[in-house]
Design the sequence.
């Protein structure tokens, strides 16, 4: 990500974009063919003295024009045809689009790796029972594969969003001073089409110097993806706690866990991922604030993108790498999961009893009866099963054997495996 967005990459891509514009204008007969050929031949960073760029920046303050001025020293007469009819924002916006295309390809590849790992985990643990937890308390059991499948389903939607985003983001910009391409006359629309084709981008229907929704949508999607990764990280952190012990984040043997506690092996990948998600969301917030430029161009909005777009991509990709590595080495403790299920006992299957009793005395009445039995059990007087069996409102309809069967939490996983298989099938894999 740093290589995609560093200054050398920006300058190199800037030259390639200017060369593509020169070729498009040569085809329209505006720029001499020999000049376009010379510009193209020297459209690489070795033909620009970077120290001269810095000197021009110190002198004129505009980075893009400093690149052009330094480049012209190498181009000679052909340099007079660089940037014909374009604004600096035209070229810079197109450069950022190309950088984003590279970044999104890397993000998509790593997101696919996360998806593939979740496919394996959901399939492997489709029948591994564990406590379901809602509102920070124990709820009816699920399977670990079910939890993994909810993560997987979310990642699949992000992959779709990334693909759908391409047609709206991979768009060239060539609009001129006020967006009308007045400087190149009637050939402007044709040049725009050729320019976009040269760069394998789409031409816009109209100039977008003052409309920044493309980048805002991208960074908001990055924030959504980061949020999903943080959700995974938080779950790993919770279930990795010693008092729960259901998942184990792998920590390399040679990694120092704590500066003060020699025994500790801190789950840093998950913690870093949660922190990175906050940074990604911050960049999206700034980008959202930049959706309100004045008139046809407003540097106060445009300028911030040079900071937040690279930062967002770098933070997100690191979070993706962390998550991929975390899931690859993730330890699973089925015995701890089963122990935690049984520690909660029959109470977490109270819904099963309520629904069976509801068939006989109605749902609301059954809820009241089972709630009373659960409260008695929680007070510690008798067990949940005993409280049910000694209540005539229950015993008249459910035998002790049926009560025991209904309150076996391991058997109350509902359609966990069915839903897992549906998600796996949508991911191109089923058991």
Sequence:
């Amino acid at each position: 990500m740093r290589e995609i967005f560093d200054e050398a990459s920006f300058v190199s891509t800037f030259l390639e974009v200017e060369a593509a514009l020169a070729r498009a204008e040569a085809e329209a007969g505006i720029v001499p063919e020999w000049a376009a050929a010379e510009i193209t031949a020297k459209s690489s960073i070795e033909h620009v003295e970077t120290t001269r760029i810095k000197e021009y920046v110190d002198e004129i303050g505009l980075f893009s024009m400093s690149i052009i001025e330094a480049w012209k020293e190498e181009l000679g007469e052909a340099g007079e045809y660089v940037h014909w009819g374009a604004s600096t924002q035209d070229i810079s916006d197109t450069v950022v689009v190309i950088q984003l295309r590279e970044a999104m390809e890397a993000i998509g590849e790593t997101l696919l790796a996360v998806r593939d790992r979740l496919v394996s985990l959901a399939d492997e643990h489709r029948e591994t029972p564990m406590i379901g937890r809602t509102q920070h308390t124990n709820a009816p059991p699920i399977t670990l594969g079910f939890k993994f499948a909810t993560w997987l389903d979310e990642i699949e939607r992000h992959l779709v969003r990334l693909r759908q985003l391409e047609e709206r983001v991979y768009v060239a910009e060539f609009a001129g001073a006020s967006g009308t391409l007045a400087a190149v006359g009637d050939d402007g629309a044709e040049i725009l089409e050729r320019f976009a084709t040269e760069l394998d981008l789409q031409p816009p229907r109209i100039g977008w110097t003052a409309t920044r929704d493309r980048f805002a949508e991208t960074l908001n999607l990055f924030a959504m993806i980061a949020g999903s990764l943080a959700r995974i990280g938080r779950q790993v952190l919770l279930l990795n706690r010693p008092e729960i012990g259901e998942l184990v984040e792998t920590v390399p043997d040679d990694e120092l866990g704590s500066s003060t506690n020699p025994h500790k092996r801190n789950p840093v990948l998950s913690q870093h991922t949660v922190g990175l998600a906050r940074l990604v969301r911050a960049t999206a917030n700034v980008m959202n604030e930049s959706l309100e430029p004045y008139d046809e161009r407003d540097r106060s909005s445009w300028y911030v993108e040079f900071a937040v777009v690279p930062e967002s991509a770098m933070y997100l990709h690191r979070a993706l790498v962390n998550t991929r590595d975390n899931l690859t080495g993730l330890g699973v403790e089925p015995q701890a999961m089963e122990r935690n299920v049984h520690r909660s006992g029959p109470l977490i299957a109270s819904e099963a009893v309520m629904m069976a009793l509801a068939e006989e005395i109605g749902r609301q009445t059954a809820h009241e009866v089972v709630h009373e039995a659960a409260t008695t059990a929680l007070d510690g007087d008798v067990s949940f099963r005993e409280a049910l069996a000694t209540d005539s409102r229950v015993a008249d309809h459910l035998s002790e054997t049926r009560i025991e069967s209904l309150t076996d939490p391991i058997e109350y996983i509902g359609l966990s495996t069915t839903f897992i298989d549906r998600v796996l099938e949508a991911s191109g894999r089923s058991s």
About this structure: The first strand starts at residue 129 and ends at 134. The chain has three domains: 2-84, 89-174+202-332, 343-416. The mean pLDDT is 93.
